[in-house]
Write a structure and sequence with these properties.
Blueprint lengths: L9 E5 L5 H10 L3 E3 L10 H4 L3 H5 L11 E5 L7 H10 L4 E6 L2 H14 L7 H7 L1 H5 L3 H9 L7 E5 H6 L1 H8 L1
Parallel strand pairs: 1-3, 1-4, 2-3, 4-5
Length: 176
Amino acid sequence: MNTDIKYPNFLFIGAGKTGSKWLTKILKAHPQVFVASIDMYFFDRDINYSRGLSWYKSFFLNAKNSHIAVGELSHDYLYSKPAAKRIYKYNKDMKLIINLRNPVDLCFSTHNAEYNGGLTDLTFNDAMTLNDDLISQGKYYENINFYLQYFDRKNILILKYDELVKNKYEFMRNIL
């Protein structure tokens, strides 16, 4: 086995619609960062978690000792209690990145993506009334608090989407 391979030491856990595609692109361009190519949803989805750690680690085979940071971006982890436990079991020292967006803006952006992607034909007003999941995405406190039950606060970087929009350079400096 190649001992030069490194495995994840950071995860972007959410929220969605907060610039994760942009962040993935920027992190991949950094010579000391390795980011897996896909959203694996390993820790939150039972079907993927049941594939085992060897399946998960296979996505990081190209990570080398020259990569200081190795990770993945799966924005649904924030909303999953099983994911918090599984991540902690995998690596108690994992660095977690959370990017929060104004909950109303998050709902609107999520709805627009679902509407434009053909996943719903509801108006925004109807979706806000009928889709509890849409509203629950913006209820950050409970989800973050659950992660704080496992991870030391110093391991969790909480950012704001507005900071990304305002100053991308400063936003990335905080991450790096």
